[in-house]
From TrEMBL:
Domain Tail specific protease span(s) in chain numbering: 146-340
Protein name, per record: C-terminal processing peptidase
Species per Swiss-Prot/TrEMBL record: Selaginella moellendorffii (Spikemoss)
Listed SMART domains: TSPc
GO molecular function: endopeptidase activity; serine-type endopeptidase activity
Keyword Hydrolase: yes
Family classification: Belongs to the peptidase S41A family.
E.C. number(s) listed in UniProt: 3.4.21.102
Gene Ontology BP term (one): proteolysis
UniProtKB keywords: Hydrolase, Protease, Serine protease
Presence of keyword Magnesium: no
Pfam families noted in UniProt: Peptidase_S41 (PF03572)
Length: 343
């Protein structure tokens, strides 16, 4: 691949897929002018081509869009865990057994928030499941042939439960309510939340408070699955939109809800990402009221693209919209009450 064709490929990616979700200043004409500017000078070597790509991307003023050199992108060389920020590969261990090893994680990604903390960590494929091991279930995509395989990834370290709960006296006489705090959305959230709700119901709780304050998010898919626990069949959890989509793409609940009791969701300015998706889903479907302060406002979608020389670009390509068609990103969610209402 030539230096010129590499820069051309980077320009075309942005031209075809980039969503200017925050500034609303991007246009095909301005982007074409940027291309003409960088091509006014010859590219002496690959390093100069990389600099030209960075120069173009910098004009987008998007902190989530960035260029990756081949060394930086090599961590995604074989497997990509889509939407999680975790990249793994098959590597033989000291005994010659094929294991899965973490090749890279994106900083502040759901993978990092879920507890995977460093490059080089071993994730063993172990069957059958040992009762003293926690596990993550992920979809692994082979980059070379495109087929999808499902793996169960076990690891020795316990993933901490993000769920804390207790039984409280309700403001209504002779009634009790269940208080549940969700610290983050990781691979254990839905399972442990279901357990907490069952135990609180068995103890007499007739209403519930879900505390999402200071929950910065985590696994977006887990937040979606948790929201489905409270929604009726066919109700919209979230919409996604991309630049070239003629319409919003919806994610909907299926089946009957796990819980129908009255709900209050507590939020603040550190309620972000997956937490905002869940809060919006419950609020916009008239399933819960929000109490506290305005949420953080993080709702962008990024995709990773690889070039022929092994370099690549992480590009903002979409955003989330609430069931009521509200834009989360940069706006957040305004609560119904500034303090805890009686339920």
């Amino acid at each position: 691949v030539t230096d010129e064709s590499l820069v051309e490929s980077a320009w075309e990616l942005v031209n075809d897929f980039y969503l200017d979700a925050r500034h609303h200043k991007w246009s095909p004409d301005l982007w074409l002018a940027q291309k003409e500017k960088v091509f006014q000078r010859p590219f002496q070597n690959r390093k100069a081509a990389y600099s030209a790509i960075r120069e173009m991307l910098a004009t987008l003023d998007d902190p989530f869009t960035r260029f990756l050199t081949p060394d930086e992108f090599s961590q995604t060389s074989k497997y990509d865990i889509t939407g999680v920020g975790l990249n793994i590969g098959e590597v033989p261990d000291e005994n010659g057994q094929i294991q899965l090893r973490v090749l890279g994680i994106v900083l502040q990604s759901p993978a990092e928030l879920a507890g995977i903390q460093q490059v080089g960590q071993w994730l063993s494929l172990v069957l059958p499941l040992s009762s003293d091991l926690r596990f993550l279930h992920v979809q692994v995509r082979r980059s070379q042939c495109g087929d999808v395989q499902s793996y169960v990834l076990y690891r020795q370290q316990d993933l901490r439960s993000p769920v804390f709960y207790r039984l409280e006296r309700s403001d209504v006489a002779n009634e009790r309510r269940g208080y549940v705090r969700l610290k983050e959305f990781n691979a254990l959230t839905k399972r442990d939340l279901v357990t907490a709700l069952m135990r609180l119901q068995a103890s007499g709780a007739s209403s519930f408070v879900l505390d999402l304050r200071d929950n910065l998010g985590g696994l977006v898919q887990e937040g979606i699955e948790v929201a489905k626990l409270f929604l009726d069949d066919g109700e919209t959890v979230i919409y996604t939109t991309r630049r070239n989509n003629a319409s919003l793409q919806s994610i909907v609940a299926k089946g009957q809800p796990f819980l129908r009791a009255p709900l209050v969701v507590l939020v603040n300015n550190r309620t972000a990402s997956a937490s905002e998706i869940m809060a919006a889903a419950l609020h916009d479907n008239c399933r819960a009221v929000l109490a506290g302060s305005r949420t953080f406002g993080k709702g962008l979608i990024q995709s990773v693209f690889e070039f022929n020389d092994g370099s690549g670009v992480i590009l903002t390509v979409g955003k989330y919209m609430t069931p009521a068609h509200r834009d989360i990103d940069g706006n957040g969610l305004e609560p119904d009450f500034w303090r805890m209402p009686g339920i």
